Amino acid sequence: MSEVPATPVDRSTDDRARTLVAQMTEDEKFAWLSGPMAIPLAGEDKPEGALGSAAFYPGIERLGIPAMQQSDASLGVGNLGNVRPGDHATALPSSLLLGATFNPSLAFESGALVGREARQKGFNVQLAGGANLVREPRGGRNFEYISEDPLLTGVLAGQSVAGIQSEKVVSTVKHFVANAQETGRVMVSSNLSEAALRESDLLAFQLAIEIGRPGAVMPGYNLINGDYASENAFLLNTVLKGEWEYPGWVMSDWGATHSSVKAALAGLDVQSGANLDDAHHFGAALRQAVKAGEVPQSRIDDMVTRILRSLIEVGALDPVSALPIDYSQHRLIAQRQAEEGIVLLKNAQGTLPLAQRAKRLLVIGAHADHGVLCGGGSSCVPPIGSLSLPGIDMMGMQVAKVYQPSSLVQAIKEESAAQQVDFLDGTDVTLAVAQAAIADAVIVFAQEWRSEALDAKGLGLDGNQDALIEAVAAANRNTIVVLQTGGPVLLPWLDNVAAVLAAWYPGSGGAPAVAGVLFGRVNPSGRLPITFPASESQLPRPEQIDPATTTSNPGMPRKGEIIPINYDIEGSDVGYRWYARQRLKPLLPFGFGLSYSTFEFSDLRVNEPGKVSVRVNNTGPRAGATTLQLYIAKTGEDGFAKRLAGFEKVFLAAGEQADVEVQLEPRILARFEEGGFVIGPGNYRVWAADDAEDERLGVTVTLHAP
Predict the structure, then answer these.
(1) Whether residue 504 sits in one domain with residue 390
(2) pLDDT confidence of residue 554
(3) Which residues sit opposite 643 in a β-bridge?
(4) CB 410 within 8 A of CB 471
(5) Nearest 10 degrees: CA dihedral of 246, 249, 253, 255?
(6) Rounded CA gap, 423 and 369, in Å?
(7) Are 267 and 233 in contact (CB under 8 A)?
(8) Are strands 343-347 and 34-35 parallel, antiparallel or unpaired?
């Protein structure tokens, strides 16, 4: 049985936190255990002293404790509802795009960018670290999450958290756990066995916490096996604070606290967004519970100690020098991330990069002349110059559909050698077809907007985009489609177009990144962090809940009953594992991605202990990068479908080769049984692959019982 490493505790930090708590009054302690959202709802005022964002907790000047100012999110410092008029921030690409980079160092670098901007704006807690697995491909917040795989998600989320905290800002990791959909998000119970949970969703968080050491953990709105995440004693006390020895604090999501005594004793430390809840659970009610002996005073002290020790650990209580933010440099960092995460999905007859002979280009796509699409909700970052269109109502706030200011049309003009670049928004299909017929090539920017509080209806593109692409492709065989999406989509026209890019939501540097790939300045190296189904019938749960029958936001009247979601259908076999287990062929597999070069894997060797070496050779005409993916499967009745057990992104010059050694994550090789991860005896197949369907280069290893 493999040992589970606990999060290390710095005793000096712990002692300092306890000393401060011993000097605090009860009023001061309880002032940090609950608070309203610092974005005023209708008829409310922003709390005095608050910068204006997710939350504010007052400082204690006599003890040298500054106010706690909390901001969203993983993709940058948010400004929901323009609560800080005129403020803006660098918009990182979506987390799915980060997942597509398969690059842990980029995750750390982009996290550090968010931490720097947060710190210089006066925030010391960032509500980042989205580590949920994508179990529901139509989920509205999938763009905030990294992948469908626990190893890739855990490693990149952990590195992102570590980057944020390197800048003296606490990061959360969220939404703990199995928070897979937005429809009915406050009414659904994610039901699955402990073993399946441990081998998938919990493992992703476990890895992220070990790597990033986040100062706070945020449970989701959902229930898990019948108990709300924010008062689930098994998850918070038994697993997180018990087995994992997690020393930080657990904050509820905004409006996700449902009790005083049960939540406090189950491990919840802070009631966030208390004005969205049905009661001030961690206010007078919790004080009364302490007086009545229902909650011990030591539990209150533990709550505050956990908060302070996390702030101390990252240096958030230390003085911070005010420095200007270099937005130009940060935009270049965002651009580099986008360049590594754009995935080339199709490139028939070497259509891309676009040749010099393409002198007349036609660009089609809504608002492509202005900017790139951004996912909606608390993670949306609208830099100055963003275009805001009507979106959705979320908790009484209007959430805009935002196009961030990075003009795709302008970037194409600057990157290409075309003599003429025409632009159409695509609303007039007849005009688009006529213009396509006389262009050398057509670039269609297709899009699918997703948002917090709103799942996608199916996996199709919005509106008439599929018909538009079919018509344009029939008129011009050099039609290239660039997808701006919050997850996988169906591609009914795939066989009829020349090339396809998945650009996700590419952020502040998105346009030059996309143009760089289209015209060859960038050799694409992104890989799909999520499977693209051939149809929705392939999903474990093809049918969707009607959002009109339930409640999807906190603070809203409850409609209907708690909705059980049976995740034991796939269990721990999320995403590509499900397809392998069910012998389904997806449209595009996890890990898939093309390049303008070619790469070969050879000479696979399984070394001890748990290391695999592979020779990687760039056999193509130009420098580039590939991602060595190592999968493992166990045969027999107690076996499991293929699992990603290790990966390494490798950059090579043309003709260069390298011997790459990768350490396999032992918990990926194991089953959770008898209270721990057990690597059982039997035959294990290990192989190096381009994607989850590639099984050409592998060996079988037999492990014997000890």
Answers:
(1) yes
(2) 94
(3) 632
(4) no
(5) 140
(6) 8
(7) yes
(8) unpaired
CA 459 to each of CA 19, 207, 375, 388, 596: distance values in angstroms, whole numbers, following the listed order = 54, 30, 16, 24, 29
What one-character-per-residue DSSP string does 69-81 give?
EEEE-TTS---GG
Give the DSSP H or E segment for 109: helix 104-121
- pTM, entire model: 0.97
In single-letter form, the type of residue at position 326 comes to D
- The Cα–Cα gap between 382 and 363 comes to 24
Three-state SS at 267 = coil
Name the catalytic one among 72, 201, 253, 269. 253
Task: Choose among 311, 149, 226: nearest CA to 644.
Answer: 149
Q: What is the rounded distance in angstroms from the CA atom of residue 52 to the CA atom of residue 54?
A: 7
**46-58 exposure pattern, b = at least 16 Cβ within 10 A, e = fewer:** bbeebbbbbbbbb
Token readout for 169 is 């800002």
- Mean pLDDT in each 10-residue stretch from start to end of the chain (706 residues)? 47 92 98 94 85 96 96 95 91 98 98 97 97 98 98 98 98 98 97 98 98 98 98 98 98 98 98 95 98 98 98 93 92 98 98 92 98 96 94 81 97 95 98 98 98 96 97 98 98 98 98 98 98 98 96 94 98 98 98 98 92 97 98 93 97 98 97 94 96 96 85
Phi, psi of 408, rounded to the nearest 5 degrees: -65, -40
615 occurs within a structural domain: yes
347 with 306, same domain: the answer is no
Quote the CA–CA distance of 503 and 484 in Å, as a whole number. 5
Q: Whole-angstrom Cα distance, residue 683 to residue 699?
A: 10
Q: Could you tell me the sign of the dihedral formed by the alpha carbons of 333, 335, 338, 342, in that order?
A: negative
255 in a structural domain:
yes
What Cα–Cα distance (Å) separates residue 408 from each residue in 226, 328, 332, 488? 47, 18, 16, 22
Are 266 and 236 in contact by the 8 Å Cβ rule? The answer is yes
440 an active-site residue? Answer: no
Token match 């381009």: residue?
Answer: 690
How far apart, in whole angstroms, are the C-alpha atoms of residue 206 and residue 270?
Answer: 21
Whether residues 615 and 500 share a domain: the answer is no
Q: Say how many domains are in the chain.
A: 3
For residue 487, what is the domain's CATH number? Answer: 3.40.50.1700
CATH of the domain at 178: 3.20.20.300
Residue 390 burial by Cβ neighbours in a 10 Å radius (0-12, 13-18, 19+)? exposed
Q: CA-CA distance, 601 to 657, in Å (whole number)?
A: 10
Please give the pLDDT value at position 337.
98
Question: Which residues lie below 8 Å from residue 121, measured CB to CB, with a gap of 6+?
Answer: 51, 71, 77, 87, 89, 325
Asked if residue 351 belongs to a domain, the reply is yes
Dist CA 170 CA 34 (whole Å): 18
Please tell me the predicted confidence (pLDDT) of residue 8.
55
- Find out whether the peptide bond into 353 is cis, omega within 30 degrees of 0: yes
DSSP state of 392: E
* Domain enclosing residue 492, as ranges: 342-519
Please state, in angstroms and rounded to a whole number, the distance separating the CA atoms of residues 178 and 567. 9
* Cross-strand partners of 652: 624
Give the integer Cα–Cα distance in Å for 224 and 230.
10
How many residues are given for the chain? 706
Instruction: Please tell me whether residues 280 and 357 are part of one structural domain.
Output: no
Token digits of residue 267: 């491990």
Q: Are 562 and 221 in contact (CB under 8 A)?
A: no
Contact assessment for residue 316 and residue 69, using Cβ atoms and an 8 Å cutoff? no
The DSSP code for 34 is E
Greatest extent of the chain over all pairs of C-alpha atoms, in Å: 81
pLDDT at residue 361 in the model? 98
pLDDT of residue 2: 37
DSSP 42-56: TT--PPTT--SSSEE
Q: Which of these, 382, 329, 402, lies nearest to 84 by C-alpha position?
A: 382
